[in-house]
Amino acid sequence: MSTIRKGNYYRNRTRQWLEQEGWTVAVAETNYGVYTGDRVVYVKRDLWGGDLIAKNEEEIVWVQVKANDGDVAAGAKQLLAAGPWPGVSLWVVYWPPRRLIKVGPEIFVITPGCPEPQPDCSSSRSGKTGSGTGRS
User: Fold this and answer.
1) Which residues of the chain have pLDDT under 70?
2) Residue 87: half-sphere exposure toward Cβ, Cα within 13 Å
């Protein structure tokens, strides 16, 4: 599976999970073609470091989806590099291998001022908690 295909798979999986949990979700990526002489190369860019924007009655969340757990810190840096986010929660979502959608992903809540997601700087929320929302 190519990197692009893998990223699309996990982004769509996260979108499906969020919608099942009652969130309204929009894709925050843009695709465009770059002409290089005789051919077109398609480029995908995240809008302000996020893959998805989700909202419910209580909050707005900017979501960066990662397919590998080693990329969670890079996802946090992408979100934080976009600037201050007053009133918006920042999540980096990671899907462990073979994790079911009904169980949900690992969610790392990013706190500004913390260099990377750590248990003492941000809370790691696992997919299945008491409320079933994937959040504690």
Assistant:
1) 113-136
2) 3
